[in-house]
């Protein structure tokens, strides 16, 4: 029986349960970061809100998933504690839209994405697949049985599109 693990806003989850699917909803300007180790079938999902923990270091210490610069390292550490190898991880990203900020004053979605890309570049990590920007909400699913990452796009009916396969060669 499939187990659905819901990842809330500013939260993360990791698992090595092959019957689990990690899901996060309503990715607007927030980013969903999915990681998956295809060798041991361990993965994690983060729903991050803001780019930089310097906004509120105390809040970042209590809930690292709020910020890109604290949430991503927390996600990787949690997956590695389950045996994942950082260099085998397949990384998928979704969200980063401009939903609330019609005047493009804050551009929070783009700031989140820029902070994420910068962090991965500093650690020589590559994003395998992404669906970011625009003005749409996304729901992100990571299947631990297959490693597939699927998106449900707000307002689009039908099948959930495949964002990323688990194969290390695709």
Outline:
This protein has 170 residues and is an alpha+beta fold.
Query: N- to C-terminal separation?
Result: 28 Å
Average predicted local confidence, pLDDT: 91
Low-confidence stretches: none
Outline the biggest β-sheet.
Answer: 5 strands, mixed
SS elements, strand count: 10
* Radius of gyration (Å): 15 Å
What is the overall shape? Answer: globular
**Beta-strand share of residues:** 25-35%
In DSSP terms (H or I, runs of 4 or more residues), the helix count works out at 3
Reported by name, the CATH topology is 60s Ribosomal Protein L30, Chain: A
User: What is the number of domains?
Assistant: 1
What proportion of the residues is helical, as a percent range?
10-25%
Order of helices and strands: EEEEEHHEHEEEE
Supply the helix-strand structural class: alpha+beta
The CATH level-2 architecture is identified as 2-Layer Sandwich
What is the strand arrangement across the widest sheet? 1-3-8-9-10
Highest-level CATH class: Alpha Beta
Q: Care to describe what's here?
A:
The model has no long low-confidence stretch (mean pLDDT 91). This protein has a single domain, classed as 60s Ribosomal Protein L30, Chain: A. Helix 3 links the parallel strand 6 and strand 7. The chain is globular. The chain contains three helices and ten strands. A five-stranded mixed sheet has the order 1-3-8-9-10, with no helix packed on it. It has a five-stranded mixed sheet with strand order 2-5-4-6-7. It is an alpha+beta fold.
């Amino acid at each position: 029986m499939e187990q659905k693990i819901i990842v809330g806003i500013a939260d993360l989850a990791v698992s090595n349960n092959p019957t689990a699917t990690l899901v996060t909803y309503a990715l607007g300007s927030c980013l969903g970061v999915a990681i998956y180790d295809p060798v041991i079938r361990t993965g994690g999902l983060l729903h991050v809100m803001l780019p930089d923990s310097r906004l509120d270091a105390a809040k970042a210490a209590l809930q690292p998933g709020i910020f890109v610069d604290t949430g991503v390292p927390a996600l990787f550490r949690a997956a590695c504690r389950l045996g994942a190898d950082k260099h085998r991880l397949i990384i998928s990203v979704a969200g980063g839209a401009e939903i609330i900020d019609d005047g493009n004053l804050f551009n929070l979605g783009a700031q989140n994405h820029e902070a994420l890309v910068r962090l991965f570049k500093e650690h020589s990590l590559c994003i395998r697949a992404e669906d970011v920007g625009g003005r749409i909400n996304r729901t992100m699913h990571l299947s631990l049985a297959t490693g597939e990452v699927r998106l449900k796009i707000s307002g689009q009916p039908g099948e959930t599109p495949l964002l990323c396969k688990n194969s290390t060669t695709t």
